[in-house]
Each structure stands twice: as structure tokens, then as C-alpha cells.
What we know:
The chain is an alpha+beta fold. It is 26% helix and 31% strand. It has one domain. Strands 1, 2, 3, 4 and 5 form a five-stranded antiparallel beta sheet that branches. The longest helix has 11 residues, at 71-81. The chain is elongated and about 50 Å long.
Amino acid sequence: MVRELYDLKNEDLAIIADATYCRCEKSTNNDFQYKSWSEQKMDFLTKPFIVCCPDGYIIDCYVPFQANQNDATIFEYILKTDSKLN
Length: 86
């Protein structure tokens, strides 16, 4: 479906890179608790970042990031720091 939608050739690879929110229980670690607070969602959250293929094959899963970081910032960080993607 992705190949037809974006007119991709057989040798082209389509990936999906997305982060989702995961709720955290209250922590006794105040620094972690402060960093995981999402003002927008009004909850303690982390964001694991998943890179996968359209068929569901998971390429990589990156450590949970702070909830106040957006997906673009996280993806830029991954591109700069992951030596396997360079």
C-alpha cells in the first residue's frame, strides 16, 4: 500500500519513525519526575521512539525520552548520535 501511495520503486525503503506517550507512576526520584512531567497532557510521561517498516517489522527502539520533547527534536538527536544510521 505504501509503495502505491508514494510511488516507490522496489529498491526503495519506506520507514515510519514515531514516538508515543507512556504513562509513568509517581517516582521518588525528583529529577526524573520533574523531567517526565508533560504540561500539555498534565501527567508524568515518557516517549519511547520506534523506527519500523510499514509491515510492522521493528528496525530499532530508542530509549524513552522526556515527554516535553517533540518527535522532530528526538529524531534529530537520533540522527546525530546513532552511528548505525550514518
